[in-house]
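Following the same procedure, backbone shapes were mapped to integers, yielding the entry below.
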Amino acid sequence: MAAMTSPTPKDSEKRLGVPSRNPLPLSASQEAQVRDLFYARVRKQCAEEIKAFAACALGRTFSVSFACRAEHRAMNGCMKLHATQEEHDAAREEWFALRLERQRQREHKAKVAAAQEEFVREWWGLPEDVRLSRQKDLDKLNREERVGGMPAKDRPIPGGPSTR
């Protein structure tokens, strides 16, 4: 039993932004992003086997399954070897680590869009209410990324209106 102790604080600090070993549930699009990272990591580790199979399959159609059987088995074996739960957890940790970068990219896109809209509004002499129509979209982009579902009704949203 002594060997099964909980991780030390140093171990939890090493982990890159995942709140726990079983992290919060993500939305479907966020899970798809994690899955894309996972597949990219596995493909990167098996790049040589994939290249060998692709080279064998080049110019073949029906005969690929017969002529490239050894390369196909080597590629699948490599991918099965590296497509583990630990690799999926590492991809999830990488996704959580990249959250701040994605937030900065969204903010930059919002600033560029606002500047372009301001230019078009001034250029064409549009009324002020046209610019205010995008204010809700800009406010939505400035909010933090949601992880773990919807916030509670009585919990104030950071940066949102006060509940007084």
